[in-house]
Amino acid sequence: MNTSKQSWQQFDADHIWHPYTSLTNPLPTYSIESASGVRLKLTNGTELIDGMSSWWAAIHGYNHPAINQAIAEQTAKMTHVMFGGISHKPATALAQKLIELTPTQLENVFFSDSGSVAVEVAMKMALQYCQNTNKKEHNKFLTIRGGYHGDTFLAMSVCDPVTGMHSLFNKVLQKNYFADKPTRRFNEQWNAQDINSFKQLIRQHHNELAAVILEPIVQGAGGMWFYHPEYLRQVRELCDKYNVLLILDEIATGFGRTGVMFACEHSGISPDIMCVGKALTGGNISLAATLSTKQVAEGICNNNHVFMHGPTFMGNPLACAIANASLDLLCNSPWQQNITRIEKTLQIGLEPCRKSPNVADVRVLGAIGVVELKKQVNQATTQAEFVKQGVWIRPFGKLVYLMPPFIIDDKDLQQLISAVVEITTK
Ligand SMILES: *Cc1c(COP(=O)(O)O)cnc(C)c1O
Known about the structure:
Elements: H1 8-15, E1 32-36, E2 39-42, E3 47-50, H2 53-56, H3 65-77, H4 89-101, E4 106-112, H5 115-131, E5 140-144, H6 153-156, E6 177-179, H7 196-205, E7 209-214, E8 218-219, E9 225-226, H8 229-241, E10 245-249, E11 273-276, E12 288-293, H9 294-301, H10 317-331, H11 335-350, E13 359-365, E14 368-373, H12 379-388, E15 391-392, E16 399-402, H13 410-425
Parallel strand pairs: 3-15, 5-6, 5-7, 7-10, 10-11
Antiparallel strand pairs: 1-2, 2-3, 4-12, 8-9, 11-12, 13-14, 14-16
This protein binds pyridoxal-5'-phosphate.
């Protein structure tokens, strides 16, 4: 096939899949030349203020000199070497940092290449733990509706059945249990009834459960919902009561986004297994990790068993070096002050949206601001309107949301907010 005469934009539209799109009727794409600080630069020279952090990830903005330096230094030594039978400082330093930053009980680290794989690994850990500790019947998972855990099959089996399109994959997906979505908001008065559905399911099915898995406090791609910390606290209590492992998927919430380092801190609880990804490398390269307690690790390995997973690019030194630099940047920055400032500005700035007849709800937590509309947005036209306003904001479904890099200044943040207010209220 002769492709030389096509522009590369046309080539893209004809040949390349983008996330959740059609190849026969593709959505428009924008050509980005470079990115720096909180700005994405289009090939035509236009600059857009980034409201998305490239999906929760680019917390320090783009093209950061400290990250670039870490990339150059590690590249001069080695970009990759297999992890089977080999170890290196970038991975061990990162594991040590993660163990220090996460709740105390988490002591063991499994590195993988993406969030979905980190979730697969977490679920496999729970299954192998049960297999090896006389709980052979424990093969199911319990989660809550409205969740998102990734696009691979085991991860999909615990995504919301509706937004996760379970009907498409019915014959392949393992059947798991879904409690009602928590209804009490983060800042609302707690209502004891909210936990009833979960409580009933765990009571009924604990003898079949390998683990409970959920996103702590913030449900991300499943609907951008912030639920009450007491819900999660009671989930932990019930898991303990029925002796079921708790997996927390902190892939979106980890590393400060909700105002605390990990969202489970809002509830003062810690999981048996935790997944991190996305902002782990400051959004520079794909890397994820699954942490577990010693009890889980020892259960899996009892009687000379091994954990059955090992990606080709496991513990990639370049990715680990970038993550180390990103975590140093984060920990040495006033990130809590930044998040508080962003949160207040979002709360005040998005307030006018509430008065619009188009708007169903406005909610803000940490550096996340969500405007839920009454109707689905037209993604292509709304995206174009945002670009015209000089901002990069990508709505989905009924949701227009902001999760800017933590380093954004007030002026740029105001411009993001003004664009959201204008477009959602007109
Ligand atoms: C993005 C996300 C995942 C999947 O991560 P990928 O790197 O896209 O595979 C899993 N869980 C949550 C909560 C996420 O936000």
